[in-house]
């Protein structure tokens, strides 16, 4: 029996919304989820995420395939991402989110925006 191909996913913006979607994606078969976290990087990379939800149950110390502070991190430079999920706040960033995720984008990467706002997609060609 042939195994299914693996999808590598990078979640950019591990706040409340991003954490839920990273958790959902990580539970999918044949999927490895890496998370890009800033203020919560140390905790997520060493202790994991504590997910407590009526819908998803209790999952203390849930670990992802990897955690990085930036999509340019050397630990993921050779990972080919099928998807990059942008769950960052839809505010003006310097540099823009599109530039920050650029090192992790390959020709077959699909960028998924999970943001609230009008015109958020304009910076992503």
Summarize the structure in words.
The protein has 125 residues and is of the alpha/beta class. It is built from 3 helices and 7 strands. A 5-stranded parallel beta sheet has the order 5-2-1-6-7, covered by helices on one side. The protein has a two-stranded antiparallel ribbon with strand order 3-4. Helix 3 (97-101) links the parallel strand 6 and strand 7.
Layout of helices and strands:
Layout: E1 7-12, H1 16-26, E2 31-36, H2 41-47, E3 49-53, E4 57-62, E5 66-68, E6 83-86, H3 97-101, E7 110-113
Parallel strand pairs: 1-2, 1-6, 2-5, 6-7
Antiparallel strand pairs: 3-4
- How many runs of DSSP E, i.e. beta strands? 7
Q: Outline, from the CA principal axes?
A: globular
The low-confidence parts are: none
Instruction: Kindly provide the radius of gyration, computed on alpha-carbon positions and rounded to a whole number of angstroms.
Output: 14 Å
Largest sheet: 5 strands, parallel
Strand content: 25-35%
Structural class by secondary-structure content: alpha/beta
Distance between the termini: 39 Å
Helical segment count: 3
Spatial strand arrangement across the major sheet = 5-2-1-6-7
Give the % helix. 10-25%
Average pLDDT taken over every residue: 90
- The SSE order reads EHEHEEEEHE
């Amino acid at each position: 029996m042939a195994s299914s191909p693996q999808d590598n996913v990078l979640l950019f913006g591990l706040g409340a919304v991003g954490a839920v979607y990273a958790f959902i994606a990580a539970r999918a078969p044949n999927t490895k989820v890496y998370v890009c976290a800033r203020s919560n990087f140390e905790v997520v990379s060493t202790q994991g995420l504590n997910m407590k939800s009526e819908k998803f149950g209790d999952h203390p110390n849930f670990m992802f395939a990897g955690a990085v502070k930036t999509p340019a991190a050397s630990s993921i430079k050779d990972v080919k991402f099928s998807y990059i999920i942008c769950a960052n706040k839809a505010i003006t960033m310097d540099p823009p989110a599109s530039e920050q995720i650029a090192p992790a984008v390959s020709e077959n990467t699909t960028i998924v925006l999970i943001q609230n706002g009008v015109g958020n997609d304009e910076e992503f060609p």
